[in-house]
Write a structure and sequence with these properties.
The protein has a single domain, classed as Arc Repressor Mutant, subunit A (Orthogonal Bundle), CATH 1.10.10. It is built from 4 helices and 2 strands; from the N terminus they run αβααβα. The protein is globular. Helix 2 packs across helix 3. The chain has about 70 residues and is mainly α. Strands 1-2 form a two-stranded antiparallel sheet.
């Protein structure tokens, strides 16, 4: 991850995770808040950030399969 573009592709949005899991974005946020789906919520921000490799592991996939 040497440039900004790599950092962007290393993360997923709530919409991305919802589509991957077949859930609503609201449900993904609820699961993230409960700590069920691993995520980060930067202090002072409203949006959740999901690391691609962590979500892949959560789903039982390799990062390349995601």
């Amino acid at each position: 991850m040497n440039n900004k573009r790599d950092k962007v592709t290393a993360t997923l949005t709530t919409d991305d995770v919802a589509a991957l899991l077949g859930l609503s974005t609201r449900r993904v946020c609820e699961l993230a808040a409960a700590g069920i789906i691993p995520s980060i919520r930067p202090k002072g921000r409203r949006k959740w950030v999901f690391l691609r490799k962590v979500v892949a592991k959560y789903m039982g996939l390799s990062e390349d399969e995601l």
